[in-house]
Amino acid sequence: MGESYAALMPANAYNWIAVWRRNFLAWRKVALASVLGNLADPITNLFGLGFGLGLIVGRVEGTSYIAFLAAGMVATSAMTSATFETMYATFARMDAKRTWEAILSTQLTLGDVVLGELVWAASKSVLAGAAIGIVAATLGYASWASILYAMPMVALTGLVFASLAMVVISLAPSYDYFVFYQTLILTPMVFLCGAIFPMSQLPSSFQQVAGLLPLAHSVDLIRPAMLESADSGRAVFHVGALCMYAVLPFFVSTALFRRRLLR
Amino acid sequence: MSSAAIDLAGVRKSFGDKIIVDELSFSVARGECFGLLGPNGAGKSTIARMLLGMIAPDAGKITVLNEPVPARARVARVRIGVVPQFDNLELEFTVRENLLVFGRYFGMSARKVETIVPSLLEFARLESKADVRVAHLSGGMKRRLTLARALINDPHLLVMDEPTTGLDPHARHLIWERLRVLLARGKTILLTTHFMEEAERLCDRLCVLESGRKIAEGKPDVLIDEHIGCDVIEIYGGDPHEFGELLKPYARHIEVSGETLFCYAPYPEQVRVQLRGRAGLRILQRPPNLEDVFLRLTGREMEK
User: Fold this and answer.
1) Tell me: the pLDDT tens digits for A109-125?
2) A216 lies in which domain range?
3) B106: nearest CB among A11, A99, A106
4) Cβ-based contacts of A25 with chain B (< 8 Å)
5) B82–A105: do the CB atoms touch at under 8 Å?
6) If I label A163, which of A70, A248, A256, B216 is the partner at 20 to 30 A Cα–Cα?
7) What is the ipTM of this complex?
8) Angle between the B290-298 and B220-227 helix axes, to the nearest 10 degrees?
């Protein structure tokens, strides 16, 4: 059992790149629409919530609400972008399109495929995060350097949520089940993790639980970076927590995919 | 390099309490075309997936291209080309892009793939379709592209799961012709099929399966000769059981399947004499084939 599980793991450090490049080629064909979508969504949200609510709210944690919100939105958009890429595009490649089946008949292992898909989803997160960052920097709510600095954290956030969504798709019989993950886990997380308002507004018992959630770590990592108030000790703690959230689901989902596909 | 391309010994597999493959052993020599023949549900696809290391057997030993499978299946797959039962091409990609992307899975550079694309397209008779999106190809073209894709790593062994299922006769003949070219080049082919004609035309040897068990193995013509060995008269219309009684003395063997009576007759004229003057009968005399072997061994027709 242990030996055969080991055979599922990535065969080497570079096999996954072939999977990533396959997805990149597919994306390139629809790149314009994808980039426009990535830009349009945050612009709408920043203007709508930022200016509208911002006027009522005033300043939050010593900064303008729109700057506070922009940083939270970089984190949440990394989350949603990686999640949706995995739940819809990756699920299709794993299930109906039989892309994985084709790849698994070559010299790649299941681990290679899952890793390639995870890094791809994280790449889409970087794209989405960068789009908001560019909008925020253009409007003067963050510096260009801080946006660049935040990108590795955005990528890590993407990896975490792709990895978690990978577990969801390894279990879900069909698309219909994704809505549970979305409404019961993701949406509450947006409100609990300080993306839209500070976590200090929550009852203290909620704060404790919320602090453990992956999005809270992302927000606490990305916002100080963008607002240039980072504390390196805290940052190491958040990065460590996020790495756990990225790595553990990888092993779980790979085992679950074996049960689902290799039988 | 040792002899056999594939070796199975005492392989068993069950899902839950359903036995899919039951004590199966066979061996495929290099350069041979070996067929797994059986109706849907006989375990053919499961066996094909086991050879690739996608499914681990419950018991028994599998060796493919000298590698123990599934333990070292990944290494074996470097030299295997796979034609799956259902097309899994990239529909949004062009023919050329499909080959490029698939080559990368074998660690091939774009330049390396580019050098062999022309010969693969020529083999698949898709020269004029290189930059056409796969979604726009016909079913036969897609199958030929799948075949070309399976050759990208210049495999020693091809594993094909129902390579012509769902194709029209013309497209099917073209695939058969292409497969004979591959055999002439010295490739080993393992194919699963439920088409008797396909098995008879292509396979040097085959293994007939029913419910995961091997019920016969050998060269197609030898199997036909051993189990049937005479002409077959098919009779439709009327009550097959009544004719069965009538014709019994003149036949080596009689099978009834649905409303058809199969009469295996060393002296077909004698049977014809008995049926003379009976209205409403359709009588067909033909040489025996693998379908008859299957019917003889299992008491039922394959495609029902």
Assistant:
1) 999 999 999 999 999 99
2) 2-261
3) A106
4) 93, 97, 101
5) yes
6) A70
7) 0.91
8) 50
